[in-house]
Q: What sequence folds into this?
């Protein structure tokens, strides 16, 4: 069984993502030169550059992930699905904020979020738009 997760970015999300990348790396021409030569060994930097270039060319940006692990799929409880669904449609800056929004105990939400991350179903990022 496969689980495919897709998150489409709104125009506002795209602008925020571009600002975040500019803030993170400063001058983008240096980033372009460093990644274009193929000598960059930082996969996050290369990914950020490719995202920025795609956004500059007006491309639609989607974040896709295919999960094939039976352990990951088995870890999906109704409460964890609620968390993923909430995060998909709402910006969340912390687990505390998430627990308050869901009206659930912080520890239980923390345990669920870490289980989702451990199984590859949720990613922590400075860009909370990358959460699922």
A:
């Amino acid at each position: 069984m496969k689980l495919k997760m897709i998150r489409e970015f709104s125009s506002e999300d795209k602008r925020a993502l571009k600002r975040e990348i500019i803030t993170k790396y400063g001058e983008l021409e240096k980033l372009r030169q460093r990644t274009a030569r193929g000598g960059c060994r930082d996969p996050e930097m290369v990914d950020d550059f490719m995202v920025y270039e795609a956004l500059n060319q007006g491309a639609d940006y989607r974040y896709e992930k295919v999960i094939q692990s039976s352990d990951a799929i088995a870890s999906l409880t109704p409460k964890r699905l609620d968390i993923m669904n909430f995060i998909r449609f709402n910006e969340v800056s912390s687990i505390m904020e998430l627990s308050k929004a869901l009206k659930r105990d912080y520890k239980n939400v923390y345990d669920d979020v870490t289980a989702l991350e451990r199984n590859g179903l949720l990613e922590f990022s400075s860009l909370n738009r990358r959460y699922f």
User: Anything to note?
Assistant: The chain has a mean pLDDT of 75. The CA atoms of residues 32 and 49 lie 7 Å apart.
